[in-house]
Amino acid sequence: MEFILTTIKTGVDNFKRNKLRTFLTSLGILIGVASVVLLLALGTGLKKYIRNQFESLGTNLINVLPGQILQGGGIRPGGGALGGAEFDEKDVQRLKRVQAAQYIIPIFIKSINVSSGKETKFADLYASSEEVFIARNLERQYGRLFTRADNAKRAKVVVVGPNLAKNLFGTAESALSRNIDINDQSYRIIGILKSKGGGGFGGPDFDSFVYAPYKSVFSLNPKKTFFSILIKAKDEKSTNSLKTQAKAILSQRYDEEDFSLVEQTEILNAVTSIFAVMNSVLVLIGAISLIVGGIGIMNIMYVSVVERTREIGIRRAIGATKQAILTQFLAESVLLSLTGGLGGVVVSYLITFFIQQYFPAEISIMSVIIAFGVSTLIGVGFGVFPARKAAELSPIEAIRYE
């Protein structure tokens, strides 16, 4: 124990004599560790964010989509955009025969320009039935939601997200009972929803959606087809049987390659797996700076060996073993690396603290352990060669060195 403390004290004293060099050497490891820890924290936060978004959109849901969306556990490139079935009201009525289904909800989505007076905003039209609010956990903030009667009589009414209401009328509440124009047709706002979030990482901004009865916007959907059909199971246990029955019904009209039945969890798993791969690549790129930092440590330790050649010779002459010299320089290398690693973790926590105000980044204990583990390995790996050189020096030649 005394030997270890003495070794550490000697290393610290040596670092104090060369403070600037010690700082610059540790800086490479600090940047590398901070990069890796931050990327892991952002990856963890991103997974949490995506999971929360999916959970907020409802549970026990199955999306009926055109084409084959999932392939090999991931999202197929192009997905249903390459073609597939065009769903209509016949499909909706046929799917309502499935006993395990609580709701069968047609969905038509279209990008639109919404205007009121001089204000014009870009938004997404989400035309559906009245059950969509229950299935998607959408709650009203002001006014009311549209009903089955509104859909049946094709009433020109809409429910809008709070962001769109604020952008058009200044405040969400002031948008109530106001009229907006969608493709030169006037619709009355009967309700404003509570904030749902979204819009991050290129995803949909649910707070800027315009929700309308699907029959009320047939003028915008002349073919009367749907982008998808949303099925909500009565409970989680009936999801598998519901999926099987729905597939059998749709297969009577379409080829199996023309449609997909995708559960929320399947989409979630596919999306998170994509981000996991991306995050792994970014972490590997960040790890390159750790290697650069390790090379810096190795170079500085070689310089230290040269500068302290006479010191090494004197220590050997008075009885220090090769093992003691090797341990001394290896310990200094590891100490340099751990100092940089500690600094990197501290910087990561500080940056994460500020990021958390805008994004749920989260540093895990495992990432900190990995950071220190990698720092130690770099100290040993890149310090062993200079340490061996120091240990192999001849005492006589070292003392005579100028």
UniProtKB/TrEMBL annotation:
Organism: Candidatus Roizmanbacteria bacterium RIFCSPHIGHO2_01_FULL_39_12b
Keywords noted in UniProt: Cell membrane, Membrane, Transmembrane, Transmembrane helix
Superkingdom of the source species: Bacteria
Transmembrane segments: 23-46, 281-303, 324-351, 363-385
MacB-like periplasmic core domain boundaries: 22-248
Family named by the database record: Belongs to the ABC-4 integral membrane protein family.
GO CC aspect terms: plasma membrane
Gene Ontology MF term list: transmembrane transporter activity
Protein name, as recorded: Multidrug ABC transporter substrate-binding protein
Membrane topology: Multi-pass membrane protein
Domain ABC3 transporter permease C-terminal: 284-395
Main localization category: membrane
Keyword Cell membrane belongs to the record: yes
Subcellular location: Cell membrane
InterPro entries: ABC3_permease_C, MacB_PCD, Macrolide_Exporter_MacB
